[in-house]
Amino acid sequence: QVQLVESGGGLVQPGGSLRLSCKASGFPFSYYLMRWYRQAPGKERELVASISSTGGNTDYADSVKGRFTISRDNFENTVHLQMNSLKPEDTAVYYCSSGISWGQGTQVTVSS
Q: How many Cβ atoms sit within 10 Å of the Cβ of residue 38?
């Protein structure tokens, strides 16, 4: 069945880095645009970054531009989100999405 499994979240100090991964299975991953979303407590889910099926085009929310990088490996059916210069306001549950499914999310907490 269609499945997305995120990993890589955790607790990090402000200014630190994390790399999230999302492993896909059960659908033709290389044909799908992939997105990372996040949802902070008490807030709506927001789109963080997206990447085209080939990886040639990416887009970012203004709040993460220059700090986050989305990438994908179509051989490994995996999409990554490299997060640098993390801020407390980046604290949220991060989800990947294929448009037809969602992962379970991974918690990112930025705190000193």
A: 24
